[in-house]
Write a structure and sequence with these properties.
With about 300 residues, the chain is mainly α. Helix content is about 75%, strand content about 0%. The chain has 11 helices and 2 strands; from the N terminus they run αααααββαααααα. Strands 1-2 form a two-stranded antiparallel sheet. Helix 1 runs parallel beside helix 8 and helix 2 packs across helix 10. It is elongated.
Length: about 300
């Protein structure tokens, strides 16, 4: 047998391994949705929130349009009532839901792009100086509370758009970066732990024996098996990011008025909470609650999907 034919077997074994991993993950996902009613509830709520956030602003009036119908309770004309300026609360809640969703997804994507390669590299070089440098840097980020970091950054650069040379950084992107920085340590740790597990598998040794570069092993083989636990963390962080964006806006550290977000809507509602305008805070609050519960339930369902006890 020639060396080439000897080296073909491990590679041929690695490719089916990757395909089997993807098929097994898909099969377990379907089984989890079929047997876990909480996950199905979360999926339905999450879909409802996404539809509301994406289609609501298209089907509702301008959220900044004022009228003489001040503090109207929910009725046929205003399903969510109106605020202190006569603005349609359904339109404002839908616009705020869209902002929260886009900020959450963007921050999670940025966090994944920053954290997953770093965590995988640390795991692949586990126990080395590179691993120590990456993980200690992650620990520094983990020690920075999101709201303290937000107050520092926004205190330096302001809460509005920031001009850096010829580049204008919108306020929303500053919130995205803040939440992404807060999420990075969690994504990196999960990616490193999953990579450390995969490095001990036989197919990695087989690929190393036949001379496959480490970069190819990481990107083509290990990444497939690292993504499932990272995606679980990503779904959980979408819920956290939606809540964090609302909290930052509520505190005046996030996206500023007149751009509606769920956070600054709830801040405006605090002045009218005891004046009988219950819809002003309750209905946008329910939209925020629906989003956080939905993505948490889906994340928990995916976590059950990867639970070794579920595989047995």
């Amino acid at each position: 047998m020639t060396p080439a034919s000897e080296g073909a077997a491990p590679i041929d074994q690695a490719v089916p391994h990757r395909q089997r991993t993807m098929r097994r993950s898909l099969s377990l996902a379907v089984r989890t949705l079929n047997h876990n009613w909480l996950t199905r509830v979360g999926a339905v709520l999450g879909l409802a929130y996404i539809v509301f956030a994406l289609l609501g602003p298209i089907l509702t009036p301008d959220p900044l349009q004022q009228s003489n119908d001040i503090l109207q309770s929910p009725n046929a004309a205003y399903l969510f009532g109106t605020d202190q300026l006569g603005r349609d609360m359904l339109a404002r809640a839908a616009a705020g839901a869209r902002v929260s969703l886009l900020v959450a997804i963007a921050s999670v994507i940025v966090g994944l792009v920053l954290a997953v390669p770093a965590g995988m590299l640390a795991g692949f070089r586990g126990g080395t100086l590179l691993d120590e440098i990456i993980m200690r840097s992650v620990d520094v980020l983990l020690a920075l509370p999101l709201f303290v970091l937000g107050m520092f950054v926004l205190g330096v650069f302001g809460t509005g758009d920031t001009q850096i040379g010829f580049l204008t950084v919108p306020a929303a992107w500053k919130v995205v970066v803040l939440i992404a920085i807060a999420a990075t340590p969690f994504f990196a740790r999960v990616a490193r732990a999953a990579t450390l597990t995969e490095v001990e598998e036989d197919y990695v040794d087989a690929l190393r024996v036949v001379g496959v570069p480490g970069r190819a092993i990481l990107s083509r083989e290990i990444l497939v098996n690292v993504l499932p636990p990272v995606l679980v963390q990503a779904f959980l962080w979408i819920a956290i990011a939606i809540f964090a964006e609302a909290a930052l806006s509520f505190l005046g550290l996030g996206i500023q008025a007149p751009q509606p977000t769920l956070g600054n809507i709830l801040f405006d509602a605090t002045s009218y909470m005891f004046a009988g305008a219950w819809w002003f805070s309750v209905l946008p609050g329910l939209v925020l609650l629906m989003a956080t519960v939905a993505f948490n339930l889906v994340g928990d369902g995916l976590n059950d999907l990867l639970d070794p006890r579920l595989r047995q």
